[in-house]
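Case study 2.
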Amino acid sequence: MSELLKALHGLTPVKKKVHTVTIQGQSLVVSLEKKLEVLKHGEDAYIWKSPTEIMLKSKTKSKTQYPVLKKATKGYVFQEGDIHWPNAVVEGGEAWLIEQE
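Prediction:
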């Protein structure tokens, strides 16, 4: 039994895993939680806040606006509710309008 214990003590110790991320070409040692967060968003989504901290880039708002079918004072009446088959233009029908924010 003592030989087994001696063999176990003779083993090399297990090295701790070092988690690194590469942001803008520079590597940084981070915790496992931060590494998983960076993997979730992607390394390209981060910038340097300070020499030792990283943060997510701010998201840009979309400037594209799409029209939405809404009730209007003058608009279309559709065949069986199918927007591809307008029957007539009437008062109180539906029209494609761009929503203003």
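The two ends are 77 Å apart (CA to CA).
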